[in-house]
């Protein structure tokens, strides 16, 4: 990306090299590939330098729009301070009801906007359910055939999925804020092994 600077002010952003008019002169697109940076600067064209130091993972944060600045030497694009997404649910309040904003199918105390915890716990439940589904038939068969029982390794595996799922849900519930949730999901490498504080749901060893 490039910026056109006139009288020390950014007047236009250019997403890709193209023919353009500056003053009374039309310049071909090829100047972006054959001219040096200083030659482009001399006619007011600067390549934008992106500073992503304030940009955070959009799974956990809401980033600001980028702002562009010319300091007399270069044009930079930067982000402001990111806002953590809500980790807890937002509920409908009595004030919402008094103001007439409460939907007819909702009550005071119902969830208005789901927070990250609710979303993450739902995902864990779905993942656990997906892992259990392939072995559900063992349980169904055991309930329908009197002389059949679920193999020990299957029963043990299914119990371990539920146990770990509950542990993960508890860890999510107990996270104090959004950065704490992010930490639970952040992988680190120790002795060549990647892991995260939240851990992983078990898989069935065949």
Concise account of the structure shown:
The chain is an alpha+beta fold. It contains 7 helices and 13 strands.
Task: Kindly list the characteristics that best describe this protein.
alpha+beta; five-stranded mixed β-sheet; two-stranded antiparallel ribbon; 23% strand; elongated
Q: Terminal Cα separation, in Å?
A: 53 Å
Note the run of SSEs as H and E.
Answer: EEEEHHEEEEEEHEHHHHEE
Q: Please identify the oligomeric state.
A: single chain
Please mark out the parts with pLDDT under 50 across 5 or more consecutive residues, or reply none: none
Mean pLDDT: 96
Say how many strands there are: 13
> What's the number of domains?
3
User: If helices are DSSP runs of H or I spanning 4 or more residues, what is the number of helices?
Assistant: 7
- Outline type: elongated
> Spatial order of the strands in the main sheet?
2-1-5-8-7
Helix vs. strand class: alpha+beta
Radius of gyration: 28 Å
Notes on the structure:
The protein is of the alpha+beta class. It has three domains: 2-83, no CATH class; 85-113, no CATH class; 115-195. Helices cover 35% and strands 23% of the residues. It has helices at 31-34, 37-42, 94-98, 116-132, 136-144, 152-174, 178-185; strands at residues 2-6, 9-14, 20-22, 25-27, 45-51, 61-62, 67-70, 75-78, 83-84, 90-91, 111-113, 188-190, 193-195. The strands form five sheets. The protein has a five-stranded mixed β-sheet. The protein has a two-stranded antiparallel sheet with strand order 3-4. A two-stranded antiparallel ribbon has the order 6-9. The protein is elongated, with a radius of gyration of 28 Å. 8% of the residues are buried.
